[in-house]
Specification:
- The complex is a heterodimer of chains A (about 140) and B (about 120).
- Helix content of chain A is about 5%, strand content about 45%.
- Chain A is mostly beta strands.
- Chain A starts with a strand and ends with a strand.
- Chain B contains 2 helices and 6 strands; from the N terminus they run H-E-E-E-E-E-E-H.
- A 6-stranded mixed sheet of chain B has the order 4-3-2-1-6-5.
- The longest helix of chain B has 17 residues.
- Classes of the chains: A mainly beta (about 140), B alpha+beta (about 120).
Chain lengths: ~140, ~120
């Protein structure tokens, strides 16, 4: 288990060239698969553009390992649009407000969203229904 | 003219040592070069951190086969950290064991690329 807040600032390094591509700025969630679809790097990074989760070899406790710069660039085409999840308003599918997103726990092996921590309590990852510019939508428990 | 090993030393000293599983195990203090005409780099002396599970500060790690080095980092296979030696004498033996171990495994060749799928 790893938190979005912990992932931020983690260096991204290639294993074939030991090249530092940059640091993690944010993670993009695909609400359909309820998983992380890509890793976004900070603006001052050497690598620009999101890195697809499929290109990530290991999301380790100290660094994110990508096989190569080529692998990092290859997966950027089909990445879905990014909406910032942390701080987002949370709504249930019945239209009720459920606070704001404080943090998100995910499985660093699979990228699966495990728990969404909101200001009004935690929501299981499988209850995630949608994420857009206005809100993150969860299924009412 | 700078020998390749010396050139490498110039770049890699102080670099972070990170496993391919994304765990930082220390920083590079020195490079261990095989004696004799070859001058092959066989491993690195690193200042290990707590993640390496060692109390002793200076340890040796074999070069391995999937290693990549740059001014930023030294990436070692995750299994290389099991072969950490605490002195140069035992390090020589560890390198031999490690290289035999690598030769026995069918898939550690980096040129074949093990990039598919998510994190290992």
């Amino acid at each position: 288990m790893m938190l979005f807040s912990q992932a931020r600032g983690r260096p991204v390094i290639t294993s074939s060239e030991a090249e530092a591509l940059g640091t993690v700025d944010d993670l993009t969630i695909d609400p359909h698969t309820k998983s992380i679809s890509s890793v976004r790097l900070a603006a001052d990074s050497a690598h620009h553009g999101p890195i697809a989760w499929s290109a990530v070899n290991a999301f380790g406790p100290d660094a994110v390992i990508v096989h190569s710069r080529t692998a990092a660039e290859a997966g950027t085409v089909s990445v879905p649009e990014h909406y910032k999840a942390l701080g987002s308003r949370v709504l249930t599918d019945l239209g009720n407000e459920h606070g704001t997103v404080e943090d998100i726990a995910f499985d660093p092996m699979t990228g699966k969203v495990e728990t969404i921590y909101t200001s009004l309590g935690s929501v299981p990852g499988e209850h995630l229904m949608g994420l857009g510019s206005y809100a993150l939508v969860v299924r009412a428990a | 003219v700078v020998a390749p090993a010396e050139a490498e030393v110039g770049h890699v000293l102080g670099a972070k040592v990170v496993t391919d599983a994304g765990r930082e195990v220390g920083t590079v203090l020195d490079v261990v070069v095989e004696s004799g005409a070859g001058g092959r780099v066989v491993g690195f002396q690193i200042a290990s951190n707590e993640a390496a599970g060692r109390r002793k500060d200076k340890v040796y790690i074999p070069r391995g086969q999937t290693l990549a080095v740059s001014g930023h980092a030294l990436v070692v296979p995750a299994n290389a950290s099991h072969f950490i030696a605490e002195g140069l004498a035992s390090f020589t033996a560890q390198v031999e064991i490690f290289e035999r171990h690598q030769a026995d495994e069918p898939s550690p060749n980096p040129s074949t690329g093990q990039t598919t799928g998510g994190p290992a």
